[in-house]
Amino acid sequence: MWQSLRKALCAFLALALLAPGSSFGEAQPAPVSPTVPAPPGPALSQPPQPAISSRITVGPDYWLGPGDTVEVVLAGRVEATRIVAVVRVDGNITVPPMGTIPVAGLTVLQAQRRVASLAQPLFRYLDLSLSLIGTRSFEVTVSGEVEKPGTLLLSATDRVYQVVTVAGGVSPRGSLRNIAVLRNGREERRVDLLRFLLAGDLDDNPYVVEGTTVAVPPRGASVALTGAVVRPGEYEIGDAGSLRKLLDLTGGLTTQSAAADARLTRIGPDGKKATMPLDLTAAVKPPADVQLRAGDVIYVPPLAVVQDLVEVRGAFNGTSESGKTVTGGKPTVVQRFELASGDLVRDVVVKAGGAAPFADLRMASIERTGPSGPRQTIPVDLHRLLVEKDETQNIPMLNGDVLSLPPAEDKVYVIGEVRSPGPVDYRPYLTSREYITLAGGPSTRAKIPGTIVTFPNGRTYAMKEAPPLEPGAVVTVPEVFVKWWQDYATIASTLSGLVTAYSGLFILFGGARDFQRLNE
Question: Please, are residues 15 and 24 in contact by the beta-carbon 8 Å criterion?
């Protein structure tokens, strides 16, 4: 009976849970949000919301046209309405509740201002934005000196440079500086792509529109810039034919150029070339200029060709133009200076910013190459010159001299038979034996009595006779030739092996002869 009652109860519960109107197992409804009153004015309509598209960033010179897609967001105090509109053939878009709005021929910013001006009277609280999310496509024709002339399908966000690039680029015979942009068969303007490439001038790289034809003419008259210029090469003259404008466009002269000693090579009426001096410091200073002709070659020599130079290396303070290096863990410089007539060692040191505090003044030197001889090294004691005012060290500098000033040493070098050979920090009053201890002590094969000490000036002493060590000294611990019983045991073992091998060979060959005699 109990089993029957239990089965009936289970069946009843199962039917109750499966019943459509039952509340068992249902999720509780979410609490109802309080109704917020709408702001005064017409209500913002809520059309179906399309998928969010990414916005397209365009320049301020992009003009809207038929086929472009814009997104208009009307944001009130509570709700925001997003409207996607396509610019129709008549140049209009529809934005409810404002209705039809003409936007063709406007920039994105101008279109936003126009829509906002129409929406402002209708809404008390409104934040409106308009952005471009899709661009129109159309055909553009490319002709002339390009690798792949023809008709291309492009977007309204493409500019002349992209058109030429898609067409394979300008051919070697083509012009970069005189490209014609035509619209509906009529020339609209000429663009200078070289100016866009070198100066980033977007005025010479405009957007293309419907009916555009890009025509690349043959390369025009050109000139060559050579020598100490930022961008040497061959360039079209351009419409202005101005050397000053061409130098401005190509970056001008390098910092190491001898502008006053430039040369201009020009083809004369008789077809012969003539070279003439050209002082660029005055010739291209506004309002002065040089009018270029086809085939002109401008050469700007580097200072090293016309100006005497000296170089400094090492522990100088340097200037803002010095090359920075590191020597022995200390900052050093490398720099070249113009050598004025009569410059002496002190003059060059002053040009280099003076000697650094850690410079080894006594170890300075000049490397000099004679006109008909090998390179020589001339020692210069800057301590005597700068501190003791000894003018005998203030020798004249010559073109091509290299003044070297090493950093002062602060190490003593321990090498040879020690456990940790290498540099050891210099400590005054330590003996050579103590420096060996700081280097880990002697190895098992060290010959301490034979240790020698070499000083920076090149003098060498036995350890017992050496004066107090100086920074830069080298302590060399030699290797002993024979060391106690280990070496004797090694020698005896080697000799024993040789005797055993010889005895074995003697017995082997002697036994073979005895065996042969027995057989006979």
Answer: no
pLDDT in tens, 372-417: 667 899 999 999 999 999 999 999 999 889 999 999 888 899 999 9
Strands 69-75 and 127-134: antiparallel
Phi, psi values for residue 139, rounded to 5°: -95, 140
Q: What type of residue sits at position 149?
A: P
Q: What residue ranges define each of the domains in the chain, with the CATH number in brackets?
A: 69-134 (3.30.1950.10), 137-216 (3.10.560.10), 222-305 (3.10.560.10), 310-405 (3.10.560.10), 411-477 (3.10.560.10)
Distance CA 421, CA 441 (A): 9
Q: For residue 234, what are its two tokens? A: 């061959």
pTM given for the model: 0.51
Report d(CA 119, CA 125) in Å as an integer.
10
Cβ-contact 378, 366 below 8 angstroms: yes
Strands 309-314 and 402-405: parallel
Alpha-carbon span 107 to 95, nearest angstrom: 17
Question: Looking at the DSSP assignment, which residues form a beta bridge with residue 374?
Answer: none
- Strand ranges inside 359-471, DSSP E: 364-369, 375-380, 402-405, 411-416, 422-425, 452-454, 460-462
